[in-house]
Amino acid sequence: MEKSQLIEKRFQEYEKAEKLLKNRKPENFSIEKLFPELKLPEVNSRKTYGYYIFDKPVYALIPYLDDIIINVPPFKNREALEKKLKISLDYLIELQERNRVSINLDSDPVAYENLDYMDEIIENAPSSQIRNDMYLKFINPENNYSEISNKIFDGKLFDYAKKIKWDAYVNKFENEIENTAKNILTQLGALGYKSLFDKLTGGKYSPEEIYNLIYTYSSFLTDPVFYSLEGITPIDKYSIENPLNSDAYKDISPLLKDKIGQSKKIMEFPTDVGIELLRNNGVYFPSGIDTALQIDTEKARKALFELDRAINERMDREKIVDRKIALEEEFKQINDAVNVYNKSQNNKIKDKVDITIGIIGAASSLFLDKPLLLASLITTALSLESVNIPTKIAERILKFRKPSHIVAYMDFHNEIKNLNVSGKN
Predict the structure, then answer these.
(1) By the 8 A CB rule, do 163 and 169 touch?
(2) Is 259 a member of any domain?
């Protein structure tokens, strides 16, 4: 696609966002409404949607979500994109046409210049970066978080991006990693994590250290809003358990300790801590996209939706437990169905994933006697329990976002490295 066309799309993105936000107030406009093109399931549709875990097969989530949100970076070529998604581009487009995935552009449209293989996607996909930027200004119009974030990261992550091999996949990789860092840090501030924001930006840590911290935090602090768009949030165990060694982790951790009951003036903001509600070990996920689409998992997806609805309608503990039990039973049914299908197709290789379903947010307070979802899964320095936010800020934020989120913490037993992505698999 020509640069002039991409510039025009950028203009249209800003125009659409402004139109959608015009005369709106935060308390009656949540972020998913900024993406009408995605046609995400309505609240009363009894369907689930959530964000995609990169480097994992798209089909690993298909049994559990009706719609998977994929924010596609400007991968430098088709091969790089397919290697990250573990399926072919043709299959990705087919899944989009079947309303099983929703695709966003992860960057400004102009970043996709000369990526002709992306033209079919670019034409219709909204830019999550532009719309998220507009949403940040909408919920906190007078903040300077973005300005501070820009100063910290501008031109500072080039060497680090090469170290972690972004240059092997992403076009203009230095811009992409900087944009990612700026966005997450700004999101933390705008969502009310001011103490954490101030600590990170106080001058003690290098841009690399800050990036590593916020990238880890984003999975459970900002992703439920800005990536899952208030839907289900899958979290990959590997990305959480493998932060780089840094003194920053040890220094930040005191901000992340649970202080329940220590102060009536401080509210436990419901977005960071989780409780482990359901653990189902050794779930076999389908051997390919065809299998994932053929296995009937509609009841399981509805059960997950009912659990999500229960925690956000603030139902009592017993009702949430009832829905947890129903979901657990459906997960067992999926496992049986995948095994039966594999046997019928003579598939000998079975890939496992341990799925722990948890609650982050206000509803987790109903289960304080249950194991913390993250406590045993993150390194000691990142033993996250809660971030305290002043009540006034928390009350304002709770007006325009869900009080609780469902997270699916996924431990993939096998890393799929040599998958044939060029055709059906």
Answers:
(1) no
(2) no
Vertex 204 angle, CA 202 and 209, to 5°: 105
**107 and 150 share a domain?**
no
Confidence at residue 228, expressed as pLDDT on a 0 to 100 scale = 94
Identify whether residues 147 and 113 lie together within a single domain.
no
215 close to 184: Cβ distance less than 8 angstroms: yes
Q: What is the dihedral of CA 321, 324, 330, 334, to 10 degrees?
A: -150
Euclidean distance between CA atoms 106 and 85, whole angstroms: 14
DSSP 228: S
In a shared domain, residues 274 and 330:
yes
The packing angle between helices 145-153 and 207-221, to 10°, is: 140
Per the CB < 8 A criterion, the answer to whether 205 and 181 are in contact is no
* 124 shares its domain with 148: no
The most distant pair of C-alpha atoms in the chain lies apart, rounded to whole Å, by: 61
Q: What is the pLDDT of residues 342-357, one digit of tens each?
A: 777 776 656 778 888 8
Q: What pLDDT digit, counting tens, does each position of 351-393 carry?
A: 778 888 888 877 877 887 777 775 444 433 333 334 455 555 5
Give the phi and the psi of residue 285 in degrees, each rounded to 5: -95, 155
- Would the pLDDT of 406 be above 50? yes
Rounded Cα gap, residues 132 and 63, in angstroms: 28
Nearest to 54 by CA among 77, 87, 79, 96: 87
Tens digits of per-residue pLDDT, 244-295?
A: 444 554 555 555 443 333 333 333 333 445 788 887 666 777 777 887 888 8
Structure tokens at 352: 């496992």
Q: Per the structure, how many domains does the chain have?
A: 3
Q: How many CB atoms lie within 10 A of CB 318?
A: 8
Name the residue among 159, 76, 67 with its Cα closest to residue 112: 76
Q: What is the pLDDT of residue 194?
A: 80
Q: What's the rounded Cα separation, in Å, for the pair 55 and 237?
A: 12
The b/e string for 355-391 (b: 16+ C-beta within 10 A; e otherwise) is: bbbbbbbbbbebbeeeebbbeebbeebbbbbbbbbee
Q: DSSP state, 172?
A: T
pTM over 0.70: yes
Closest by CA to 256, choosing from 382, 364, 360, 363, is 382
Q: Which residues of 115-150 are buried (b: 16+ CB within 10 A; e: fewer)?
A: beebeebbeebbbbbbbbbbbbbbbbeebebbebbe
> Which string of b and e fits 25-41 if b means at least 16 CB within 10 Å?
ebeebbbbebbeebebb
